[in-house]
Every structure is written in structure tokens, then in C-alpha cells.
Design brief:
By secondary structure, this protein is an alpha/beta fold. About 35% of the residues lie in helices and about 15% in strands. The protein has a six-stranded parallel β-sheet, with helices on both faces. A six-stranded parallel β-sheet has the order 9-8-7-10-11-12, with helices on both faces. The termini are far apart.
């Protein structure tokens, strides 16, 4: 890092009065899908004052779909971190684009990191924005206060806007995702299938026994999206627990459409859970299909995963099963509950705690027919 730092262009430290406003800007964020979703708020904020009222974004092939249709992004460059050829190709693109400012959207870098500094070196950009402190000071010459890791990640990211002359308290930081109409139409087809699955086997007038959303006892028509998958096995709640919670919900909301999704590799679990609770098992081999289901739902139930951040982007109430240590990565600014679990694995989280949270979600946000 010291060797790279010595070769980086531009001044070592930029005066406080300097402004990144109205400059060609590249935003760098090439880790996980949830990270990119969280970053869409600051991308919008920075684009509002950057040259051309847009920014370019360096993503990876997995996270790039998050930015499809985003009007604040001029161009998405993709880096495959497992390929040296990709590094060479991206480096060539960065040099050709002539960026003046590069913003590192990752505010919790490890003590030693070299990929981003090397890309900054290759770009030739004179101004590099990032959080200060420790080895970060070797790389960034436009430094903002270090991230307090006890605070929400999006709150910490707000500091990256200060060099652009933005008062973080005056702008909207909500993440956002943009859907095409054909994506919404495909999602609506799944919800129609979920409605049919919920109503299958109901006797005439049986749905009148539903008990959600007040004393009128009208059928609940809120669309509940359930995601089973998590980013790591230790965060993956057991199928039996999902079935236990959702069966109780189904007993009280007999005609409510429920869609169950997850990673393609978990297709058997998706079908098992959906079949047990008269839900619809939706195939989502592409990320945009899952995002469209979030965007067309009314409520979301998920373990710690990118789906929780998608719920934030679409402003959907959610129940999220979250490791307590990961509270800074809870979905931003949406109704619902985070059900925290302790220890190394989610298996210690009892079903009754989760059921209570989902019941409150439907009671507070359920929509009647």
C-alpha cells in the first residue's frame, strides 16, 4: 500500500475548501449485492452535483443488475475480481474515461487492501475520496471522518458527500431500485399464481374466518414475500421453522397470497415450504426477478440478505432475521422489525419470537380485501 500510495497522482492532502462538485466522478462499490443496494442512495445524491448530473459506477457482474435502469448512473463498469484479465480491461477503461474524482463507497476497509488503490492508480484520477484513519490515509487525499462501526452503514456513508458540498442532513438517503414494466408484469403473474394457491382447497365462505387487520374479519389481500436463503449457511433458518411460522400465519390469513423464493440451489426447500403453507414457489434464476417480486409485494420476511435491502429500496415493511452484531446492516428506514439472534448460528433463534414479529407486521400493515 505504501508503494502504491507513493505513485498515486495529485496532492497528498486536499485543502478543506476544495469541492468535488461538477467533476467527472466514479463511484466504486464491487462487493456484495446488499452493499450495492445500500449505495444507491449516495449514488443518487452524488449524481445530483457531479458533472452531467450522473456518476459512473464500478461494480461486479453479480451486483451490476441492481443499477439497471438507474437514471443517476451514466455507465456501469464491471470487475471480476477472480480474473486478472478483468483487472487489466477495467484499468484500461478507467484510464480512457479520464475521471477527476473517485469515491470509494466501502467505508469499512480492512487494514490492508490493494485492489482499489491499484485501480485508482490506473485511472490517474487526482482526487480520491474515502474515510480517513490508519492506512486509509495512504490512499485517499480527500478524507472524511472514519466510520463508527456501531452506527448504521448508510449513516456512516453520508460523510462521503461532504466533499461535494452537500449537507447530509438536507438530502434523502433512501436506497432505490428501478423496475421495467415487463419485470413488474412477470412478477404480477407470480402473485396471481400465489393467490390461486392460497385459495385452493378453501371451502365456500371459509376465508371469512380470517382475523387480521381489525375487527371486520375481511380477507387479507396483502402480498407476503418470503425469502429462505441467506448469504452464509450459519444465517440460514431451518425449513421447519419457516413452515411452523408460516403455517400459523396461514391459519389466520387463509386466502393471503404468499410467495416463497430463494437461491436456485435451494429449489427443493422453496417447494417444500411453499407446499406446506399453500404458497407459490417462484423461480428466480436472475436477480432482477427476485427484485421485481420485492417491488410488487406488500411485505417481506427474510433472513439477513440482500432481499432486506431491496425491501428498503422499495419501502416495503419487513421482518428481518439478523445477527445482533450485524445491526449496522439492518434495512434502512422502513417499518417492521429486526429479530436479532446471538451466537454463531441462527439455529438458536426460536420460532415463537419470529412468529410474534410476523404477526405484528400483518396486524400493522396488512391490507384487507
Amino acid at each position: 500500500m505504501r508503494a502504491i500510495a507513493r505513485a498515486l497522482p495529485g496532492p497528498r492532502v486536499v485543502p478543506a475548501a476544495w469541492s468535488a462538485r461538477d467533476r467527472r466522478t466514479l463511484f466504486v462499490r464491487y462487493e456484495r449485492i446488499g452493499d450495492m443496494i445500500m449505495a444507491t442512495g449516495i449514488i443518487r445524491v452524488l449524481a445530483g452535483v457531479a458533472a452531467g448530473k450522473t456518476v459512473d459506477v464500478l461494480a461486479n457482474p453479480t451486483t451490476a443488475p441492481v443499477l439497471e435502469g438507474n437514471p443517476h448512473v451514466r455507465r456501469v463498469l464491471t470487475l471480476d475480481r477472480k480474473s486478472w484479465k478483468s483487472y487489466a480491461a477495467v484499468g484500461k477503461q478507467l484510464k480512457a474515461e479520464g475521471y477527476e474524482v473517485i469515491v470509494d463507497g466501502r467505508i469499512n476497509n480492512p487494514p490492508i487492501f490493494t485492489s482499489t488503490p491499484l485501480l485508482m492508480l490506473r485511472s490517474g484520477a487526482s482526487y480520491r475520496v474515502g474515510v480517513g484513519g490508519a492506512n486509509n490515509d495512504l490512499v485517499y487525499n480527500v478524507r472524511v471522518p472514519a466510520y463508527d462501526r456501531s452506527t448504521p452503514y448508510i449513516e456512516g456513508s453520508k460523510a462521503l458527500a461532504i466533499p461535494f458540498g452537500i449537507d447530509p442532513a438536507t438530502v434523502d438517503w433512501q436506497p432505490e431500485i428501478f423496475l421495467r414494466e415487463d419485470e413488474r408484469e412477470e412478477a404480477r403473474g407470480h402473485w396471481n399464481a400465489a393467490m390461486s394457491a392460497a385459495q385452493s382447497g378453501l371451502s365456500s365462505g371459509e376465508e371469512k374466518g380470517e382475523q387480521w387487520a381489525g375487527s371486520s374479519h375481511r380477507p387479507v389481500q396483502s402480498k407476503l414475500l418470503v425469502n429462505l436463503s441467506a448469504s452464509e449457511p450459519k444465517r440460514r433458518w431451518q425449513d421447519a421453522n419457516f413452515i411452523e411460522v408460516l403455517s400459523s400465519i396461514r391459519d389466520r390469513a387463509r386466502s393471503m397470497p404468499i410467495i416463497v423464493i430463494g437461491l436456485p440451489s435451494e429449489r427443493a426447500s422453496i417447494q417444500r415450504v411453499a407446499g406446506a403453507i399453500r404458497g407459490h414457489a417462484a423461480d428466480t434464476p436472475r436477480l432482477r426477478q427476485a427484485l421485481a417480486l420485492v417491488g410488487t409485494s406488500d411485505m417481506v420476511f427474510t433472513p439477513d440478505t440482500s432481499i432486506s435491502h431491496a425491501a428498503s429500496a422499495f419501502r416495503k415493511p419487513a421482518v428481518v432475521l439478523l445477527k445482533r452484531d450485524h445491526h449496522p446492516y439492518a434495512p434502512y428506514n422502513i417499518p417492521g422489525e429486526n429479530v436479532f439472534w446471538d451466537g454463531n448460528e441462527i439455529h438458536s433463534l426460536p420460532s415463537n419470537r419470529v412468529l410474534g414479529a410476523v404477526e405484528r407486521l400483518l396486524a400493522q400493515h396488512g391490507r384487507q380485501a
